[in-house]
């Protein structure tokens, strides 16, 4: 089997599962309990927070545990809207964000907020000058993703941050769900970023765990009210085992990061160069530093994306249409639509997304399978 759908989710590492298992069995008390079963749970929770903060070069108090990317995105967006609604009701985002951002924005629009959706260029990138032009005296939030989940574009976060230096009251949020472990911490944690959202199942830890980086001094209204856990910012009895496992996964990711980025780049390049030779293959991602190491989006012209996905499945190779969330609904990929790719071509798009477990041998096997898949479609293509 070759698993090339790591942007949808990643396999849990055995060491990470071992941590989850051990903590679930041995440190299962409620961290808020005063008795001696609560204390080790509290200590482990805080140790996990300190470890993650240290690995990412931020403060422990800036890490708030959540259930994953969708929660983090919704919290920062709506939490900003609630906290700052007296100051303004204008939000800026891009037209290529994940549905978790897009649909949170749509809900705020129904409540009377005004959202500016910035266009992108042919590579899916936002122009920093467009952010500058969209800023208003009533802007409260700018939300731009770090790495696009459909085609892998890295957004100019630092440059946008530089523009926002002149607007200190505006919250700057970065959806970094596709960015952890991809050699991009200097982008994600660049000076002016106030909030960044992360999801553990994208880096070999468990579903239903994640965290938000929230810069010291920045305030959000909580969305989940209750017993006041996470310093009142996100209530609910903490998933100590899940967060300890996530901390372990981040440690492992960081140990391997430089090597795994290089390996992903090599695997991606081997496939890219092969696909480039075919007249009817259209490549949406490229090998420049403006694209993350792990995503490659392409189309076989005239063949629908889902047909291509299933053709590779017959070779025990798992890829996806452009994003896992929209793939079952057969929605046209929103990033490609924003890039003004014609609908027919966008409907043919598929995504390969790599993980550190993928090797050059996988690229060779994929390329061989590709030749057969392409030959099988020859009649449709010509
Ligand atoms: C860029 C981006 N943001 C947010 C999410 C949502 O994360 P989760 O699955 O943890 O809710 C995803 C998941 O694919 C993503 O790729």
Automatic annotation (TrEMBL):
Residues 2-363 form the Aminotransferase class V domain. InterPro entries: Aminotrans_V_dom (IPR000192), Cysteine_dSase (IPR016454), PyrdxlP-dep_Trfase (IPR015424), PyrdxlP-dep_Trfase_major (IPR015421), PyrdxlP-dep_Trfase_small (IPR015422). It comes from the Bacteria. Pfam families: Aminotran_5. Its cofactor is pyridoxal 5'-phosphate. This is Cysteine desulfurase. It comes from Limosilactobacillus ingluviei. GO terms for molecular function: catalytic activity. The keyword 4Fe-4S does not apply. Keywords: Pyridoxal phosphate.
